Amino acid sequence: MANATMEEFEALLNESFEMDTPEEGSVVKGKVIAIEAGQAIIDVGYKMEGRVELKEFAEPGEAPTVAVGDEVEVYLRAAENARGEAVISREMARREEAWDRLEKAYADDARVEGAIFGRVKGGFTVDLGGAVAFLPGSQVDVRPVRDAGPLMGLKQPFQILKMDRRRGNIVVSRRAILEESRAEQRAEVIGKLNEGDAVDGVVKNITEYGAFVDLGGVDGLLHVTDMAWRRVNHPSEILSIGETIKVQVIKINKETHRISLGMKQLQEDPWDLVAAKYPLESVHTGRVTNITDYGAFVELEPGVEGLVHVSEMSWTKKNVHPGKIVSTSQEVEVMVLEIDGAKRRVSLGLKQTMRNPWEVFAETHPEGTQVEGEVKNITEFGLFVGLEGDIDGMVHLSDLSWDERGEDAIQNYRKGDMVEAVVSEVDVEKERISLSIKAVGGDKFADAVGGVKRGSIVTVEVTAIEDGGIEVEYEGMKSFIRRSDLSRDRAEQRPERFSVGDKVDVRVTNVDSKTRRLGLSIKAREIAEEKEAVEQYGSSDSGASLGDILGAALNKDE
After folding, report:
1. Do domains 193-266 and 270-349 have the same CATH topology?
2. What DSSP character marks residue 313?
């Protein structure tokens, strides 16, 4: 029994020791018994006292708040030091206490209060009531912050993103709190907005594709195409940051909270009057706003633009980039060719405001007119000659020369040569002009043999004597009479009996305008004369000899 009582007593004694003697490395309660030399002396019980620097009782940026008699929690690092005092820390006690509180908040996804007190690489340090956390630069605000000075030392809420007690790491975010409150604010503002509402907003930001407009806590996007009915190259042309503008709510996406805005929707649509204002084939002055590979856009009035297709730009410049014909901001005259109200498209023509140069040429240069021009191009089938009105005419090989083959005649011409030609045909529809160089000065052959037909008797001049016959000339046209055609009498068929310069009467046996030659014969003339004499005199003088008949015919001629 006595043994049992001893054991009980020992257990109670041990228990009292454990209760009274605080364990090193734990948080204990103590009482401030004195403040001296910037330190607080704290009694932690069991005849143990320790000292704590006053600054450990201060919040960042504030004065210490501690007085004699205050009960405080401190961390017992060691029961006794060399001076026989307990080694205690208020800061470490706060940290332990803070970690317990923060772990609970992290588990509950609750906000915690803290104050930014320092700047470190990549962000800031935050005091969360005893525990120090890291606030990354990207988590300070919704948009990048250039100067965090005004935020320093302010008590404000944070969200814990990550924590690791073993390593002593805590990462917090201020941005998550702001986004949450913004989302609530957005939801409230969006709840009051309806599609079609006209509201006032402030231009916050301008980009290439539009502007962000603050509608009082919520931003909407005003796209560049919804700013005006006319073409806007960059939003800065009509808006500036900080400007208050009236906009219409075009669309609200309830899920993403995105709001689309428009300015032009509050103005009258110029397209409502286009058809009445711009009848087909009417001519108007417009301004070139944009040039592309396929044509040029021309503004007829703000908000109404038409396209001049490259094919409608010039009568003569076919394969040229539109930028070589017109330039941006140039004033031009255009004709309305087509209007498509549904697609909001106007087709315009530039060349239609000028007369078709082929029509003009046909009027001013009827067939047979002589023209002069520069050889622009030489091809295997002829020459292209530049004419007035910036158009070309073509001289076919066959129209180069009367005397030479076309292939030979074309060798005489070079690019840049000035040539004279006669208009032989103008086809306005096919935009084709045919010219003839050989027709300049008329057709010498046709002029020379104008009244000459087969069977005609003409007088020619001998120009050369050859073995095979004689060369003669008639009105400047050369011909050759073969030996066999020099006389009906074989003995007289000798070329040498003629002399250069002799005049001889001959009969025309052929007029070949293709080869441009006359077929001539003395023999044929003699036979024809004899035949005629026999017909005239043979019947009445039936017994007369041929000599008598010819003699009588000659006497009559004389």
Report:
1. yes
2. S
The tens digit of pLDDT for each residue in 203-221 reads: 888 888 888 888 777 788 8
Write the burial class of residue 296 (CB in 10 Å: 0-12 exposed, 13-18 middle, 19+ buried). buried
Supply the DSSP string of 438-489, one letter for each residue.
TTTT--HHHHHTTT--TT-EEEEEEEEEETTEEEEEETTEEEEEEGGGS-SS
Level-2 CATH architecture, domain 444-537 = Beta Barrel (2.40)
Kindly report the CATH number that applies to the domain delimited by 357-436: 2.40.50.140
Q: Look at residues 442, 447, 495 and name the one whose alpha carbon lies nearest to residue 472.
A: 495
Listing DSSP states for 499-552 in one string gives -TT-EEEEEEEEEETTTTEEEEEHHHHHHHHHHHHHHHHTTTSTT--HHHHHHH
| pLDDT per position as a tens digit, 85-113 | 666 666 666 777 778 788 888 888 888 88
Domain ranges of the chain: 24-108, 109-179, 193-266, 270-349, 357-436, 444-537
Global pTM reads 0.41
CA distances 413 to 396, 399, 418, Å, are 13, 13, 9
Tell me phi and psi for residue 431, to 5 degrees.
55, 55
Q: What is the mean pLDDT of residues 447-462?
A: 72
Give the rounded distance of the alpha carbon of 355 from its chain centre.
Answer: 31
Q: Is the CATH number 2.40.50.140 carried by domain 24-108?
A: yes
CATH H-level, domain 109-179: superfamily: Nucleic acid-binding proteins (2.40.50.140)
Q: Measuring CA to CA, how many Å separate 475 from each of 450, 506, 507, 557? A: 11, 14, 15, 26
| 3-class secondary-structure state, position 109 | coil
With CA atoms as reference, report the closest residue to 459 among 554, 525, 510, 557.
Answer: 525
The token pair that represents 201 in the structure block: 């907003």
Q: 232: which residues sit within 8 A by CB, 6+ positions away?
A: 224, 225, 238
270-349, what's its fold? Answer: OB fold (Dihydrolipoamide Acetyltransferase, E2P) (2.40.50)
In the structure encoding, which two tokens stand for residue 285, read together?
Answer: 């002055």
CATH number assigned to the domain covering 193-266: 2.40.50.140
d(CA 484, CA 523): 8
